[in-house]
Amino acid sequence: MRLTADIWVSAYLTRLRLVQIPAFVVKRGDATSGSVLVKLNTLDGQACCFQRSFDLLTGERTWVVLTEGFEKDVDASVAKQVGFDPDLWVIEVEDRDGRHLLGEPGLG
What we know:
Elements: H1 5-18, E1 23-27, E2 36-41, E3 46-54, E4 61-70, H2 71-84, E5 89-94
Parallel strand pairs: 2-5
Antiparallel strand pairs: 1-5, 2-3, 3-4
């Protein structure tokens, strides 16, 4: 059984809050089955956006970089994705050290 998107987002935001990493929902998608993008803003004009991907070799779902670079360019790419998929969730994480916790157990 898969977690719904809103439950996963809530759990992710809680994990970030517990280690004092600021994060917020930029766009709320479909509560049940919306995909999630995580934008990491390092507060130096740079950003990176992650999306979940299915690895055909291992059968696992992993987080991969969708785009990275200047924050305004990453924002434009995210806006384009939102235009394609109105059910999409967008979470922004702000951390100068580049922490996002996506590799932690239970978040893959």
